[in-house]
Amino acid sequence: MFFNNHEIMQQVAEKMSRHRDNVVRVEALQTLNQNLPADFISSDHWPTMKRHLIDALDESNVQIMHLSTKFITRAFTNTSPQTREVYTLLVEYLISQFNAKKGNNIPNIKSGLDFTNPENVKLMKAFRLLNEFQQETINYWIRYPDRYLEEIIESTLTLYAINQSGSQGGSSLQLSPVHFIALIDPKAQWFIKWMHGNYSRQCLLRMLEKYRPIVTNAIRHCLEFSLHRKHSADLTDRSEARAIDNRRSYYTEAELEYAFFVHSAFMLGRMMCFVNGRRFFPIKLKEADETVTVTKLLVSMVVVLVDPSPSKHLSVVYEPGNLVTEIVKGICTSEQVCEICMYKDEIVTALLAPVSHYLEPKKHNYAPSENTMLHVADLFAMVASSTRGRRHLMYGERKDMFTKPNVSSAAHVIARFTKRALLDKLPKQSGPKPSQAVIGAFLYICRQLYNTCEGLLVLYQYELHKVVAEAWREAYSEAERTATPTMSDDSSDSTSTTTKAYDINAWEDTLRDNLLNFASTAKGILLLQQTKAMNECMTYMYDRYKNKLQVSKCEKFGYGFMVTQVAGTAPGMVALQKTGYIKALLSELWSVIESSPLDTVLFTPKAWPVDPIERSSHKSLIKLLNVLSSFHAVYELLGDKTLPKKESYGFREIPDSVVEFVDRFVIVDSPAKIHSLFNFEQSHVFGLRCLSVMISCLDTYLLLQSQYKFQDVLLTSQAENHTKDR
């Protein structure tokens, strides 16, 4: 430790000079690495040391270069504000490598990037170190003054702005710093993390105004990639197949350009998620006649996604369709941002191109791939997950819902495609039939529409309930005919049969699940009843409810709303009762209020307040009232049914019907009923709460009063509990 000894610091700084002998420089750098970096950075000799460290990074001597890199690495492991000085040092070194004097060492784009060249390896290591710090510093830069953040962002943008003023990203003679960082961080995680918090996002976007060529060149590169994609076989095949692998020794021009495109697309995708980011648009490019808007940029990305040209994609991670889908999904996560950016007829029309191929195949040359169709369906599903998104799909950008229906809107196109695909009536010229996964994905979009009253009205003309029911029955019959593999079967045949059986069962469940969702509306329940598949759908719903499965990928709530809709009709209530749902509901209720069937200790009931409803019981109350809120449901469960009259009730005798629930919890008119409850007062209050909601319907009130005379029972109980005057 030097404890900031001025003379020793000065000696170390002088020994680091490039004019000194290599042995002396190595000794000085070793001294530097044996002590805390903060001691040197805070000293008066740091400017001199900084200059000498930049020279050491550029040194051909491997040992000197390694020691200088080690010092920077050690400094970055610290979270002190002095790391700003080390970061700017590294940036200044990289800038010096791209300047006019030393720029000859930077390879040309056309010649590719060869990592057998030590100079290129040294540059890539420096950029990797830079990127690691960029992703780590976000965790603590809010602790320090604003100057810390501003210097880091400004120095970074100064570096990335080099070679960004050309007329075209790929026409620059030299590789730009963005090409290097794109190989290390293709999805621009450094930029996404810097845009996450308002503290850094505000500063970053403000400074990007000063360095607009970075944004302009990113937009230009995305447009160029979209425009010339069909003629870039090397770009789509080679760069995707081998992608970005740090163990490779050579990157072609096409791979470098593809990495640049991916980095630019993710950066722009993140910018479009924020108001200040969208203010960069529209942008006027020198070589373009029209300005580039957010819509035009998104259309160019969608064109990359839906491109029908045949290509052999060997890499899934960096396949253009996957990347564009990920970017657009990021935009769709916010309903407000999605409405501003995505709810445009131009974008929807571009997304519908693969679907239109199956309806009008003469207008296209190639059939879209399965992945393309799944990506398109995924994006439409995200749009349809919100009310505004559904209306955009149904009525278009104008939202004109009171004129003649627009049969060319996305909802109608998707419904026509889904119906024809399920009926196997797509034109033969369109190519192979879409897979079940694709049909199921587009059927899910239709389901998001028809599980609302407005959407069901729009799609009613396609009679999807009949089509889905017919397809489900065919799948059910096929599943019944599929042979069950046995131990005596050949292993390959057995595996094939098992896989086929699994696929058929999965397809059957998909169809039944989508058929079930017609029960989300009153009109839909009637349509579901007409298909005569109500019982099977209710059984399927109960199985999912019992296993606590999510309704769908875009619907995180449970089946409570659907149960309420189903219980509002007599046929629905009958089907629901047959599944065992009511019995399971009462069993769960009993375990919450009284005791679980699995409890072994009978004399320690749960503490239960009389007046308020706790969360544990409130959920059970809501579930029960969802079923009993309709007169049709109450009549099916209680109509013409008498209360059981027993002389005694066991502690483990759990009600398994609503009649028994009313007998044990509501009309408690005998000592045997009172003694059978661990928590008589609490359970009775719970039953009366249910009764108070049920009799809010006059029909239910008259039914219960005529059958059970509950009013007389309650008045008698009230009189018995009245305190006599003394």
From TrEMBL:
GO terms for biological process: non-motile cilium assembly. InterPro entries: BROMI_M, PHAF1/BROMI. Residues 8-676 form the BROMI middle region domain. PANTHER family: PROTEIN BROAD-MINDED (PTHR13465:SF3), UPF0183 PROTEIN (PTHR13465). This is BROMI middle region domain-containing protein. It comes from Mytilus galloprovincialis (Mediterranean mussel).
